[in-house]
Amino acid sequence: MTLKKLLQKLQTIKEDETFELKGWLISNRGNEKIRFLTINDGSTVSNLQVVAKGEIIQKNNLSSLTLGTSLVVNGKIHLTPNAPQPLELILEDISLINNVDEDYPIQKKETTLDFLREIPHLRSRTNLFRSIMLIRNSLAFEIHKYFQEHDFLYMASPIITSNDGEGAGETLLVDDETKDYFFKQKAFLGVTGQLHAEAYAATFKNVYTFGPTFRAENSHTSRHLAEFWMVEPEVAFYELKDIIKLADDLLKTVINNTIKNYPDEMKFLNSINPNLLDTLNKFLENKLTVIEYKDVVKKLMEFRDSFEEKNIHFGMDLASEHEKFLSEKIVQGPVAVINYPKDIKAFYMYQNDDYQTVAAFDLLVPGIGELIGGSQRESRYHKLVHRMNELNISKEPLDWYLDLRRFGYAPSSGFGIGFERLVMYVTGVSNIRDVIPFPRVAGQIKM
Ligand code: 4AD
Ligand code: MG
């Protein structure tokens, strides 16, 4: 049984029940008569306190054990309702599996995130990274659970593709005539699973992808990775307002369940970032604000002096500083901005009757900016072709995509959640490199 399971069934545990734990030593204090070992098994950020008394200490040379040692402990549970931890284990038997070389870089003393980024294979052994990765795992599980419970088909969009699905030219090349030409044509790593998801939405109505996504982002920011994970639902017969409602409900459900199921990790993260739980709870309790792009521009104009980019006008792409200001200062919470000018958005979005805007939305959150990007898709064949021509997007590789509009197309809508940005939002971590096990960014690929 894991330590998490043990702590979850606390109410039914009896004094003197036997328990075995396999894990790693976190701390070791005391003397030759009594020692307190704390052990973590990776199932929770909480540790098990193990109390050793008498001859077991010298027999196993417990005083010499150092942080990181792998071991198996057996003993009897002692309930401690008045202590900081609800129970401890009275040690009866211990097997030392392996000790730790002297230069082990993870020590009790504080280390910096920068230092830990240099050792991605070891940093998960800190309380911070244990918490982040357990929350990441929970969010992934809850997302699948939500979709499965709402009758969505989980589908695999291809990772290697012949399409630049966003038409933004940020693709990482897999193959072309300059390489080995394995595919005998140009091939990229996918920048989105959306286009393929649209094909499946035309059969299964509700579908989603959840997979690795690749972008040749040259911006060195705390919010961009070259390899990240995206969650992309696509729903036939849905319009913009329907898909925004889905995004809001999905987010609130997965965040709520994660807070409920991982109280110790959330408490730990809240101790580092004291506004975290308040901010998340405020989001859960409130209705999502929806605001037109044109009204955002008017609002931002009033605060022009707060920005580095002061040229605020209709048609501009909102910079990260504007997105953050809107969600942090004006709305003070998550906000969905809708109906963006078509010239700053992708070719496949539904063109509104005003000839200027498309039925798109971005969901912006405090501390991060854009968490979700989505839209209603252009359903009219000729409008789509016209827009692709305007943008000089070559039609041949996307013939199949255009076909969808000719064969019983039911208008569809969808969005993409940057999964790492969601993990940042829920953990309060400010650099995206710290919410994925092995980050990849331009100019750097460790391991
Ligand atoms: O806004 P984006 O580019 O939208 C799409 O790709 C659509 N095809 C989604 C859809 O409608 N199915 O990307 C979606 C989200 C962004 O809001 C952001 O959270 C995240 O993906 N994202 C990144 N996350 C980390 N690193 C990057 N380089 C990212 N680029 C986008
Ligand atoms: Mg976007």
Bound molecules: 4-amino-1,4-dioxobutan-2-aminium adenosine-5'-monophosphate, magnesium ion
Query: Low-confidence stretches at least 5 residues in length (pLDDT < 50)?
Result: none
User: How much strand?
Assistant: 25-35%
Give the strand order of the largest sheet, numbering strands 1, 2, ... along the chain.
6-10-11-16-15-14-13-12
Number of strands: 18
Global Rg: 26 Å
Give the helix proportion (percent range).
25-40%
EC number: 6.1.1.22
Pfam families: tRNA-synt_2, tRNA_anti-codon
Family: Belongs to the class-II aminoacyl-tRNA synthetase family.
Subcellular location: Cytoplasm
Write up what this structure looks like.
By secondary structure, the protein is α+β, with helices and mostly antiparallel strands. Helices cover 31% and strands 26% of the residues. It contains 13 helices and 18 strands. An eight-stranded mixed beta sheet has the order 6-10-11-16-15-14-13-12. The protein has a five-stranded mixed barrel with strand order 1-2-3-5-4. Strands 7-9-8 form a three-stranded antiparallel beta sheet, with no helix packed on it. A hairpin with a 7-residue loop joins strand 2 and strand 3. Helix 4 crosses helix 6, helix 4 crosses helix 7 and helix 4 crosses helix 13. The longest helix is centred in the first third of the chain and has 23 residues. The chain is elongated, with a radius of gyration of 26 Å. The model has no long low-confidence stretch (mean pLDDT 96). The structure holds 4-amino-1,4-dioxobutan-2-aminium adenosine-5'-monophosphate (4AD) and magnesium ion. The site of 4-amino-1,4-dioxobutan-2-aminium adenosine-5'-monophosphate has 22 residues, from strand 11, strand 15, strand 16 and helix 13.
